[in-house]
Amino acid sequence: MSILKHIQEMTIDNGSKIVLLLLDGLGGLPMEAGGLTALEAASTPNMDALTAKASLGLSTVVSPGFSPGSGPGHLALFGYDPLEHEIGRGVLEALGIGFDLRPDDVAIRCNFCTTDEAGLITDRRAGRIPTEECAKRVELLRQIKIPGVEIFVDPVKEYRFTVVLRGKGLSGDIHDTDPQLTGVPILPVTVTAESPAAEKTAGILRQFAAEGRKLLNGHPPANNFTLRGVAMDPGLPRFPDIYGLKSAAVAVYPMYKGVSRLVGMDVIEHKAETPAEEFEVVKEHWDAYDFFFVHIKKTDSYGEDGNFEGRVSVIEAVDQALPALLDLKPDVLVITGDHSTPAALKRHSWHPVPVLLAANSARRDLNTTFGETACITGSLGPIKHVGKYFSLPCQIA
């Protein structure tokens, strides 16, 4: 019997309220030896006061030495083993924008990028073009027609867009074409497993990519694109059924709405952009749900850009708004991240992620500040393979 089935059988409804406040890419490193991380450098009096009444720890979200993407990281935090339930980011992006994804559809998360005359990538995110510019280029790509398959192209946010293929005999067994580096060419479309369906899908995507690049030529900075997270909907067990929690997600970016929909959470539609506005959305819906997943994106974005000060500013904005959540008196509040994104590295990293667990039945640490160094000595200790242990905050409740 799977661990999720065991958890479902043990679940008892006790009317508790749980909030998972997730700062994307929260874990960090100092910019120079002996310095502070962004979390440690930020002025966080509210988190620090909460720390004095909470338990701290460091979580290895997926596996030691593994630098997880946001999809696997979030699945792990929701209690799913991402090594068992592999979810392509294309599915998450498509669900995130509300696309009616069918079981046999193939979804791809795409990034506009900038390439030079030699075809080398100079900017993996096309300068983070505004969503309005993304939509204009998507209109160009919608001109592409390939016999035997329906192609749906939709803007997501900034440089991101989705492509969904609908037809018979398709497969998600396709490698990403993003090399994760600049100064190198976009990778060719190749299959991850040999099959007629995979070869057919790869051929369609090669043609789509070639025609798309012709249409985008002369439209810098978004004059090219990469394909990522090619996948089909895996049909996961529903989070509300496993944990017995009526669950809601409050997120700004579509991908995180997508992973929430994928596991069966209600996604609250809103116009919030700042942490304070997101917390207000939680307050407005407080009586309707048992569990709230609240996602803050910019800690990750600034980390990928190498913007240490930006990360500090977002963490401070969360802290300033935190009393609005605390005033709701959740039975359990968890503050953590899905992975580390140190500004010093400009990418996701393997480093364990800070965790703060506040609840009446949680043990108190001797720590009085929330940061990576303090979390080393926290009473939660090192939490390994966090995907197997989402039941912890449920048990604390």
Keywords:
397 residues, alpha/beta, Alkaline Phosphatase, subunit A, Alpha-Beta Plaits, eight-stranded mixed β-sheet, 13 strands, 19% strand
Would you mind describing this structure in some detail?
It contains 14 helices and 13 strands. Helix 5 packs across helix 9 (254-262). The two termini are 25 Å apart. The protein is an alpha/beta fold. The model has no long low-confidence stretch (mean pLDDT 93). The strands form 2 sheets. Strands 9-8-10-1-11-12-2-13 form an 8-stranded mixed sheet, sandwiched between helices. Strands 3, 4, 5, 6 and 7 form a 5-stranded antiparallel sheet that branches.
Instruction: Please give the order of strands in the largest beta sheet.
Output: 9-8-10-1-11-12-2-13
What class, by secondary structure content? alpha/beta
Q: What is the name of the CATH superfamily of the largest domain?
A: Alkaline Phosphatase, subunit A
Highest CATH level, the class of the largest domain: Alpha Beta
Largest beta-sheet characterization:
8 strands, mixed
Q: What is the CATH topology descriptor of the largest domain?
A: Alkaline Phosphatase, subunit A
- SS field, number of helical segments: 14
Mean pLDDT rating: 93
CATH architecture of the largest domain: 3-Layer(aba) Sandwich
Quaternary assembly:
single chain
Radius of gyration: 21 Å
- Spans with pLDDT under 50 lasting ≥5 residues? none
The coarse overall form would be globular
Counting DSSP E segments of at least 2 residues, the number of strands comes to 13
Q: What string, H for helix and E for strand, traces the elements in order?
A: HEHHEHHEEHEEHEHEHEHEHHEEHEH
Please report which band the strand proportion falls in: under 5%, 5-15%, 15-25%, 25-35%, 35-45% or over 45%. 15-25%
State the end-to-end distance.
25 Å
Into how many domains do the coordinates divide? 2
Percent range of helical residues: 25-40%
